[in-house]
């Protein structure tokens, strides 16, 4: 454990950020999973709606630095390709 006051604060801050980032990443996985489930069910409208929501979440995570912008772009592309298979 650190002895320096500022370092103790950084430890606490870093842990809060880690928990927040973990929650956001989990939310992203759930959003992409909803798209996959809708595609498997063959529901084009629900799949497109879920893809739009997932796309928005991915962009938000990328802008906040939780995932890299190229990673967000790749995931968005993959999600949209899935949706296009049932259109």
From TrEMBL:
Keywords, in A-Z order: Ribonucleoprotein, Ribosomal protein, RNA-binding, rRNA-binding
Listed GO CC annotations: ribosome
SUPFAM superfamilies cross-referenced by the UniProt entry: Ribosomal protein S20 (SSF46992)
Residue stretches spanning the membrane: none
InterPro entries assigned: Ribosomal_bS20, Ribosomal_bS20_sf
Pfam families: Ribosomal_S20p
Keyword Hydrolase assigned: no
UniProt cross-references to PANTHER family, sorted A to Z: 30S RIBOSOMAL PROTEIN S20, SMALL RIBOSOMAL SUBUNIT PROTEIN BS20C
NCBIfam families xrefs: S20
Homology family: Belongs to the bacterial ribosomal protein bS20 family.
Summary of the function given for this chain in its UniProt record: Binds directly to 16S ribosomal RNA.
Designated name of the protein: Small ribosomal subunit protein bS20
Species: Thermophilibacter provencensis
Organism taxonomic ancestry: Bacteria, Bacillati, Actinomycetota, Coriobacteriia, Coriobacteriales
């Amino acid at each position: 454990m650190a002895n320096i006051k500022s370092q103790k604060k950084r430890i606490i801050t870093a842990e809060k950020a880690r928990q927040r980032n973990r929650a956001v990443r989990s939310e992203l996985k759930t959003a992409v999973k909803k798209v996959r489930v809708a595609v498997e069910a063959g529901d084009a409208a629900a799949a497109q709606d879920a893809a739009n929501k997932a796309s928005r979440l991915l962009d938000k995570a990328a802008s906040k630095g939780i995932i890299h912008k190229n990673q967000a772009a790749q995931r968005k592309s993959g999600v949209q390709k899935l949706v296009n298979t049932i259109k």
